[in-house]
Amino acid sequence: MFPVVNAFKCDGCGVCITRCPAQIMGLINGKAAYLQMLCEECGICAEVCPIDAIRFELPKCYDAAEVHEAYQFKR
Prior knowledge:
By secondary structure, this protein is an alpha+beta fold. It has helices at residues 15-19, 44-48, 64-74, and strands at residues 2-5, 25-28, 31-34, 54-57. The two termini are 31 Å apart. The relative contact order is 0.26.
């Protein structure tokens, strides 16, 4: 699971940036952002965010019918 930053809620306070153990977070246009390839998925950023602008989201699971249908369109 990777963190998802809600840019509409993020106020750029920087708490998540200072608490990230991997030090991969920063501000882009005044909003929290991170390098997904280097994320350790520890969840600290979501825990320390004072306004709940960061949450963890499971990737969408596709059922067999959706995968089969997508594969047919690629042919």
